[in-house]
Amino acid sequence: MPIRQLPDILVNQIAAGEVVERPASVVKELVENALDAGALRVDIDLEEGGVRLIRIRDDGGGIPPEELPLAVQRHATSKIGSLDDLEAVATLGFRGEALPSIASVSRFSLISRREDETHGSALEVEGGRVGDVTPRSHPRGTTVEVRDLFYNVPARRKFLRAERTELGHIEEWLRALALVRPDVELRISHNGKASRRYKGDEDLFSGARLVETVGREFADNALRIDHSAAGLRLHGWIAKPAYSRASADQQYLYVNGRAIRDRSVAHAVKQAFADVMYHGRQPAYVLFLELDPTRVDVNVHPAKHEVRFRDARLIHDFVYRTLHEALADTRAGQTNHAPA
Ligand code: ADP
Ligand code: MG
């Protein structure tokens, strides 16, 4: 075959392979867009584990009608405009990839109204084919509907799991989000029944959200952390060693408000617990690391699950020392461990 430029729809479908793994990835991208738009209330309606329907409605700033077709174009974003912006990203999104990717593998519609518009506007996309913008009534904010995910990609559809499993992934991700944004009201419904509501309007440190998400037992055993040094701040909660887990199921790490996985930081936490926790047990924690955005590269992974720190060693040691110190009291209480 000669070399040729692939058609846009196919390019988006290839990108979807990285960005859209399952319904939970769609929910993640769409709710992140809602938060980037300043939403304080997000309604999430799901059917059949999100495979049949994902509908996300927010009360954020909305999209002007003339920009709707752009929103579903690849590499079109309102969030960055230059390399400098990219190096200091403060929004959750910035790649301009989510909507076109999702729209290329579903029956998709985008309905939005800005405060200053008299009515809303809608745009439908089916399997990547973009329709016309039409008027549609809508309150201020945006609704995105994603139906029949992967209906046109049978190879992908095969990898979808049972409804409960897909729903579980969505709920787990929403829990992680609810932890870091207690100020936002989240309402989740599944197959027409309200399944979860996070009330919103809460202070990150009131701890109320902690009980709602990770549970009363964690909260009762939590040590509050808040330490800053060298332009780094680590805050949140770690559970006392007595509340250890058999698996890493309660380990929440956020970097500048973004839930991520990071081996080096996870290792630093484990090290800090090493002499106070039985071998094979896992610590439970909810930790927020904050640093200047120029010190962390978020453009590492299309789904943005990972970041790269400019000074990874420094951060590892900062996390280790902060938590080691915080655990000093639990260590002093133990008689069978010699101090290091
Ligand atoms: P990104 O989030 O990386 O910019 P997306 O493909 O997710 O890319 O979204 C494209 C653009 O559409 C965004 O930059 C934003 O301007 C607009 N947009 C998407 N969702 C919303 C929303 N819920 N509210 C307001 N604007 C939105
Ligand atoms: Mg986005």
Can you put this structure into words, describing what you see?
By secondary structure, this protein is α+β, with helices and mostly antiparallel strands. The protein folds into two domains: 8-198, Histidine kinase-like ATPase, C-terminal domain (Heat Shock Protein 90, 2-Layer Sandwich), CATH 3.30.565; 215-332, Ribosomal Protein S5, domain 2 (2-Layer Sandwich). The protein has helices at 8-19, 23-36, 68-71, 83-87, 98-104, 154-157, 163-180, 208-213, 216-220, 263-273, 312-326, 328-332, and strands at 41-47, 53-58, 107-113, 120-126, 129-136, 141-147, 185-190, 193-198, 222-229, 232-239, 251-255, 258-259, 285-290, 296-297, 308-309. The strands form three sheets. The protein has an eight-stranded mixed beta sheet, with helices on one face. The chain is globular and about 70 Å long. The relative contact order is 0.12. Mean pLDDT is 94; it is low at 336-340. Magnesium ion binds next to α2.
